[in-house]
Amino acid sequence: MATDTHADATLQGVRIQSLPKVSLHDHLDGALRPQTIIELASEIGLDVPSTDADDLADWFEDQSDSGSLVEYLKTFDLTTAVMQTRDGLRRVAREFVEDLAADGVIYGEVRWAPEQHLAGGLTLDEAVEAVQEGIEEGEDAVDANGSAIRVGQLITAMRHADRSLEIAKLAVAHRSRGAVGFDIAGAEDGFPASNHRAAFDYLASEFFPVTVHAGEAAGLDSIRSALIDGRALRLGHGVRIAEDLDVVQEKGEEVFVQFGDLARWVRDREIPLELSPSSNLQTGAIARWGTQLEDHPFDLLYQLGFSVTVNVDNRTMSRTSLTRELKLLADAFEYTLDDLEAFQLNAAAAAFLSVEEREELIELIAEGFDR
């Protein structure tokens, strides 16, 4: 049975879906509509686990709930397979934007790896151009419906491959045509950011923003490498920074925490954490603390002053939306609208935009929550 990822998501009488939001960690190949997968697969003669959209949504959710990032990533074989043509990429990108807007997102960054979408004969540039066409079509469609959204591309290199410098140059080449930042993704453990130092050196020389997947499937050393070797301005997930915190004493509701040097640096420098609660449960990223959302160190990090943001990671695999993630957190930790607003303001401040554009985004969020 399909799950409505927006249903009954209210807080203090307010529909969370209607609140203005910022989405920073959202994978294009993890955000396909099941019906779109079925239709695109039919066009290329690809077998799918089910030709019923609800059943296919069930399949993705079941396959992704493995407790392993490696197993979780295998579900992308199907989604990337239907994203190998210009039309396929354009459609998926357009629908991605439309779905963000339906979720109340007013600014989003979509991350994806062009090197994984060349099997149909596209060049890297053609792939990026196709996605940008889809984004702009989606933005226009949202505008025609009386809303507004802006979406930028985070051009991503696969950390287990050796094309990161090439992909970094691709990102910079498209910085005035939709690309707003760079990322590395894929199997984290055993593939540190230091393997891609040449790419990060180049990006730094071009003053191009970087976020790095770190602190999900690997721990503190991975985060350290993302910051030192990658010069990351944000941490993709970053949840395992909590491993550098030691709860040394508890008195009633008061908790005393001892910071490691890395955790203190991330907190004091306000390096944003792109946390994805449901995904972190599915991949086992929070296994050290437990297996339920209430065990997620999200609230600990928030209460200690880390710059936490809320994200979906992969809408299809986690069968979720930003509305749903916020509702889950509110239920788990008794958050109020003020808390949800704080998460959006953190995300707006962390967006890869100019300071003027971030200030405008912050004003839009404040106005939306005031209403």
From TrEMBL:
Record domain Adenosine deaminase: where: 20-367
Recorded GO MF terms: adenosine deaminase activity; metal ion binding
A Gene Ontology cellular-component term: cytosol
GO process terms (BP): adenosine catabolic process; hypoxanthine salvage; inosine biosynthetic process; nucleotide metabolic process
EC number: 3.5.4.4
UniProt cross-references to InterPro entries, sorted A to Z: A_deaminase_dom, Ado/ade_deaminase, Metal_Hydrolase
Residues annotated as signal peptide: none
Cofactor: Zn(2+)
Entry keyword set: Hydrolase, Metal-binding, Nucleotide metabolism, Zinc
PANTHER family, sorted: ADENOSINE DEAMINASE (PTHR11409)
NCBIfam families from the UniProt entry: aden_deam (TIGR01430), PRK09358.1-2 (NF006847)
Protein name as annotated: adenosine deaminase
Source organism: Microbacterium saccharophilum
